[in-house]
Design a protein that fits this description.
500 residues; alpha/beta; four-stranded mixed β-sheet; 21 helices; 38% helix; CHLI-like; nucleotide-binding
Length: 500
């Protein structure tokens, strides 16, 4: 028959909308016309498909070929439509029966030799095919990653001829390498950090409730070491969280390690990163560092060295857990439920009250951070220099494994009570799951007004106090929990001290 229909998938944010590849071969002068809002990379598929078919031994029709990528108003980009276009031409020219395509979707870029090259975004494609009840044929490298999606039949192919033989039921496609056994790779241990018991306590609270954390202290006190050890005391990703994270890495053209893909991502962009690098963007919207940190940690070292405008773009995602990217031609929404961990020195010289920086210089340095941005960080602590003799002592520090046990117990309480971490509670949920005794509520409100803190800070202190109570396996938040949560506002106290 002269008409063939092949199913494929486009890329639109985290979605993989269905694209119907319609191929019609008619009489007329030889031509190859591609319609349906294709971008330049898709239009170039005409030459790739022709060479791939010829070099694979297929007859390329000497007639007028029209390929329509429907729906016409959906932008298409990349070489992912090469394989379905080639199959459509093979079917429309009578070299393959159309019924062999039923129940399958195809994505893949073709080399001129007919080999099938990887595409970007295989995880969303596999999820969409599963929801549509179809099997999917992908390049072999993509098929290995797509195996992570449960309840979907994935086939991996390395050459156009393999797909042709498979559709003719002559030969099975090559077996996809089995997923490696899930292992937990060794991570930096908290026992490596000498002293800093106060900072370790706050790190444990941050891990228990997924709270944002800011560490203020002189250079070399262990702020970066502490941040790098946070993933090791946090609960592993659930299967659903790991799949969501893998989908983001997939559309970014990155790959998660299949052996420890339940490990929480840890991203540490340099302070020269732009706002687009952090949030995402581009003519074809791509996820940025905050989305790549979804369900994980975004560590910003030397925080004041980041441009203020760059940091302020994080304010909305910190509250909502999503980022909206709008361009003239395209819009996209990416999840960004990350845990921010930041580190900074107390002055431009690296030390506080060392005589080398005046209060005015320190204020100028700290004013690079906007008040609304700092207001969104629940835990703000000072990491001081170690006392004399601490480094040479051979004391046994608590390991990450023992801290993780307490964190897991606290997190299980939260999931059983409210189904999410404490930091993700909304205003109405705080009233339901974090009730305060009347005297404690008045105490907290009086303290907030005395120090001129915001209503957002009021709610964040309650959520931190809830995490402290959970670590102690206590159902009721009491005054001691609130006072400890209030003590973790070091940067605000320093700024207030310098102003006075």
């Amino acid at each position: 028959m002269s008409l063939a229909v092949v199913f494929s998938r486009a890329r639109h944010g985290l979605d993989a909308p269905l694209v119907t590849v319609e191929v019609h071969i008619s009489n007329g002068l030889p031509a190859f016309q591609l319609v349906g809002l294709p971008e330049t990379s898709v239009k170039e598929s005409r030459d790739r498909v022709r060479s791939a078919m010829v070099n694979s031994g297929f007859a390329f029709p000497d007639r007028k070929i029209t390929v329509n990528l429907a729906p016409a108003d959906l932008p298409k980009e990349g070489g992912r439509f090469d394989l379905p276009i080639a199959l459509g031409i093979i079917v429309a020219s009578g070299q393959l029966a159309e019924k062999s395509l039923l129940g399958c979707e195809f994505c893949g870029e073709l080399a001129l030799s007919g080999e099938i090259r990887p595409i970007v975004g295989e995880i969303p494609v596999a999820i969409a095919c599963r929801d549509a009840g179809r099997e999917v044929v992908l390049p072999m490298l993509n098929a290995q990653q797509a195996q992570q999606v449960p309840k979907v039949v994935v086939h991996g192919a390395e050459h156009l001829l393999q797909v042709h033989s498979f559709l003719l039921a002559q030969q099975a496609l090559p077996a996809i390498p089995a997923l490696p056994a899930k292992v937990v790779t060794s991570q930096p241990d908290l026992a490596d950090v000498k002293g800093q018991a106060h900072a370790k306590r706050v790190l444990e609270i941050a891990a228990a409730g997924e709270h944002n954390l800011l560490m203020l202290g002189p250079a070399g006190t262990g702020k970066s070491m502490l941040a790098q050890r946070l993933p090791g005391i946090m609960p592993p990703l659930t299967e659903q969280e790991a799949l969501a994270t893998a989908a983001i890495y997939s559309i970014a053209g990155l790959q998660r390690n299949l052996t420890d893909w339940q490990q929480r991502p840890f991203r540490s962009p340099h302070h020269t990163s732009s706002a687009v690098a952090l949030v995402g963007g581009g003519s074809v919207p791509r996820p940025g560092e905050i989305s790549l940190s979804h369900h994980g940690i975004l560590f910003l070292d030397e925080l004041p060295e980041f441009p203020r405008k760059v940091l302020d773009v994080l304010r909305e995602p910190l509250e909502t857990g999503v980022v909206h990217i709008s361009r003239a031609a395209r819009q996209a929404e990416f999840p960004a439920q990350f845990q921010l961990v930041a580190a900074l020195n107390p002055s431009p010289t690296g030390h506080h009250q060392d005589g080398r920086a005046t209060p005015e210089q320190v204020m100028r340095y700290l004013n690079r951070l906007s008040g609304p941005f700092i207001d969104r960080i629940e835990l703000q602590i000072e990491v001081p220099l170690l006392p004399k003799g601490m480094l040479s002592q051979h004391t046994q520090e608590e390991s990450s494994a023992s801290v993780r046990e307490r964190v897991l117990a606290a997190r299980q309480l939260q999931l059983a009570r409210q189904g999410k971490a404490n930091a993700r509670l909304s205003g109405s949920e705080i009233a339901d799951f974090c009730p305060l005794q009347q005297a404690d509520a008045r105490f907290l409100e009086d303290t907030i007004h005395r120090f001129k803190l915001s209503a957002r800070t009021y709610h964040k202190i309650i959520k931190v106090a809830r995490s402290i109570a959970d670590l102690q396996q206590q159902n009721q938040i009491n005054r001691a929990h609130l006072m400890e949560a209030l003590s973790y506002r070091a940067l605000e106290r320093l700024i207030s001290y310098l102003k006075n």
